[in-house]
Amino acid sequence: MLAIDDIIAICFGLTSVLLAIISLYVMCKPKSGPGMRRIMK
User: Fold this and answer.
1) Which residues of 10-22 are buried (b: 16+ CB within 10 A; e: fewer)?
2) Distance CA 22, CA 18 (A)
3) Phi, psi of 28 (to 5 degrees)
4) Span between the terminal Cα atoms of the chain, in Å
5) Can you give the residue ranges of every domain in the chain?
6) What is the mean pLDDT, run by run of 10 residues, along the chain of 41 residues?
7) Cα(40)–Cα(19) distance, integer angstroms
8) How far apart are CA 9 and CA 1, in angstroms?
9) What pLDDT does 2 receive?
10) Can you give the C-alpha Rg of the chain in angstroms?
11) Cα 38 to Cα 35: distance, rounded to the nearest angstrom
12) Whole-angstrom Cα distance, residue 14 to residue 40?
């Protein structure tokens, strides 16, 4: 069994990676930006 702290750390790490990928995707493809910006707000 994973400890609660381990689960939180893993979730936080995955969230950080996802946010980084989304940011790169939005920067590389600005024309698809409005939909992503609507989600982020």
Assistant:
1) eeeeeeeeeeeee
2) 6
3) -75, -30
4) 36
5) 4-40
6) 89 95 82 57 54
7) 10
8) 15
9) 78
10) 14
11) 5
12) 17
**DSSP character string of the chain:** ---HHHHHHHHHHHHHHHHHHHHHHHHH-GGGHHHHHHHH-
Structure tokens at 4: 């609660």
Q: How long a stretch of residues is the chain? A: 41
Place of tokens 């990676």: 17
Full-model pTM: 0.51
> From the centroid of its chain, how far is CA 39?
12
| Residue appearing with tokens 């689960």 | 7
pLDDT value for 28:
77
